[in-house]
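Worked Example 4.2. Consider the chain below.
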Amino acid sequence: MAGCVARRALAVGSRWWSRSLTGVRGPRPFCAAGGAGALPPAATTTTRRHLSSRNRPEGKVLETVGVFEMPKQNGKYETGQLFLHSVFGYRGVVLFPWQARLYDRDVASAAPEKTENPAGHGSKEVKGKTHTYYQVLIDARDCPHISQRSQTEAVTFLANHDDSRALYAIPGLDYVSHEDILPYTSTDQVPIQHELFERFLLYDQTKAPPFVARETLRAWQEKNHPWLELSDVHRETTENIRVTVIPFYMGMREAQNSHVYWWRYCIRLENLDSDVVQLRERHWRIFSLSGTLETVRGRGVVGREPVLSKEQPAFQYSSHVSLQASSGHMWGTFRFERPDGSHFDVRIPPFSLESNKDEKTPPSGLHW
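Applying the procedure from the previous section yields the following structure tokens:
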């Protein structure tokens, strides 16, 4: 969701890497700490110069992971493309793309013309714009280093039985915006450590990238498409804190002679300024088509009160909501605290909760 920024520091856990991509031409090799628990890679600034981590643990040595390619300004990345996440710093591989509608309320506030407001709440009218996201696998070696900034089990499904609250997750599965992809190549035939990598992808040195989709990936994508599909993205910035929301419909369950509809929503908070702020409270308003309006207040999010700083500007998490109606809306605010103790509210862009009319039974597990 954030673009490539020259000389921006990547902070993962307590370790730091810096990179500079502007004004550099040709292949750029980068490194990661070798051995058990290898660290996320760091870009280099010149053709053969490797950057080491500032606080590299004793005994760790940097090993070459791959060579950077120029990020694509136009077009899509193909299945099998290796990449480094530009914000969270993990290594990953592209499985397949999604074409989403991005409703950016920051753009709407600068545009005078009247357009459609898909959420139905708030004062700004927003027109959606097509934007590419990717379903990706995260390298398991990097998960421990990003778990405090981004959930690595954020993609969840409803279990296919009577317990309407039962969920299961697919570890190391994520959605990544096109501008967050920093592509690279590797000579390693299994460059990403994930239990699904070799089940989904086949090495073929005659292809570019040299990893092609197996039939198991195509079948999995087709069978689970309704529950994986990313269709709408909502974004708004308040006082240099950008909030991005992606809702997903999960399915319907029967409970106590009524229908319960479930959604998950992924939220990313990003500090676009250099001032340190901390999330303290959340305030949600949840409207159901049945006519109910619920207010939810609480400390932090998912049990955390993340600090957003210049070094660690982003935090991403997922949560869930259920309604006894097939559609609704959500909106609200996050309350942040400055170092001097003052507070300010950041708007959560309103978004729709829509169910699938041609709904089938959600998966009970991975479908192959």
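Helices lie at 105-110, 143-146, 197-200, 215-228. Residues 1-25, 34-56, 113-122, 363-368 have pLDDT under 50 and may be disordered. Compare this with Example 4.1 before moving on.
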